[in-house]
Design a protein that fits this description.
Elements (H helix, E strand, L loop, with lengths): L1 H17 L23 H9 L3 H4 L3 H5 L3 E3 L12 E2 L2 H19 L12 H23 L2 E2 L14 E2 L1 H18 L15 H18 L5 H14 L9 E2 L11 H8 L3 E3 L1 H9 L5 H4 L15 E4 L2 E4 L20 H6 L6 E3 L1 H13 L9 H15 L4 H8 L7 H11 L4 H11 L21 E2 L1 H6 L1 H8 L17
Parallel strand pairs: 2-10
Antiparallel strand pairs: 1-6, 3-4, 5-9, 7-8
Helix pairs in contact: 1-5, 2-5, 2-6, 5-6, 6-7, 6-8, 7-8, 8-9, 8-14, 14-15, 14-17, 15-16, 15-17, 17-18
Amino acid sequence: MKTQIQKIIGLLTISSLLFVSCETVDFGDENLNPNRISTANTGALITSAMRNIPGIVSSVNPLLLSQQVSEITYNEDSCYETIQWDFDSFYTGPLMDLQTVINLNNSENAADYSSSGSIGMQKGVAHLLRVYMLQAMTNMWGAMPYSEALQGVDNLKPAFDDQSAIYAGMMAEIDAALSFLDGGGLSGDFMFNGDAAKWRQFGNTMKMVMALRMADVDPGTAQAKFKEAVAGGVLGSNADNIHYPYTTSDDNDNPWQDRFQSREDFATSDVMVDHLFANSDPRLAKYAEPVVSATGDTSKIDYVEYGGNTYAGMPYGVLNPGILQTRISFLPDAVIYDGTAAGGMLYSYAQVCFSYAEAHLRGWTGLAGDAQTWYELGIAASHAQWGVATADAVAYLGTIAPVSMETMATEKWVALYMQGHEAWSEWRRLDYPVLTRATDALTGTGIPVRYGYGARTASANKANHDAAVAKISGYSQDSKVWWDTK
């Protein structure tokens, strides 16, 4: 037992040195007796892992790739300058924390960690959070370490698993996690306060979304897993929406607020603004702020009038546009000046509704409702989520085209505003709306559809990295991930 604890403490020390986060958590001073073996605080490890979710739900680059947001001054990312990204910090940070929780609760001394909650709740939540992070990662990079990952000093150079195998493993993890959740309490859980029912709903909703990602490459498994998720219970209303619990205090505020404190460099894109305006969509007034001064060069800026205000989306993917911040529409105040209920959505009821609609369009049987009903419910849920007046939402619903894969996917893209990872993944998979690559694209031949592996990975785990790269077109962001077939 002493050897095991010492190894775990050593791994956690390495993790803390290697992992760099935008914000840190202070758990207070711990006076340790150097002559006594310390017991890891699994509740604190769960807290620490959760604190890394903002790096997924409020990240910038996927929003730029889905063309919902544009940069104003420093436009290199929206022009695809960076094609290599490192994923090491996920493994050395939150994923190692979660794996430690799982390992300790699988050990013969699991009872030593009961102060953080039941074994079932600790393992179940740790596995669900692990899958949430891993699915976001594999959707970005494709093949990556999975089956041999997180073994610490026992395996410092894990093999890269194909994405198909990772998805199969993650589905099995979700099923196992759901079976573990026993309602026996959980400390350190500031998302759901140890509520097993909410964690089941989270797990099943994640399973539903992941099932649809597989729909074009493994339709049989996708349909079966989708139905299992529905039977287990997914989000049922906007009241169930899963938003990261940001606060207004600096130690846990929305990263968007911090970004705007340092520079005003992000605006709603002209792609999004022009789409909303062309369709008289009342979400325009919720997704973008009115311009401060509509005096810019109209050859560069497309000003539109809506609801008595002037809006202008920032031209997407243009290097050195020479446009002042006052002349375009910033992101909504609800994101950059508060952010406690916007800009950090994990999964929404609108997303669930569109998922049902797609399942019906695919001919999957045994599901409630029909495609048109769920399509309209998804639109209505999105309007309500963003505070659109009921009368305006009803009026908009009276103008929409009938449901089809294209209209559903386009409305889903609109509804996933500020959910960058989900919006980028769904656009890659469904190919709607039709988007055009950046005007001044610096790399690639199209809009990036994957991340290239970072230089650190290429050097530290060269043989396995090279084997993974050999299966795709090198570092090219034009090489599609497994589930992206069209």
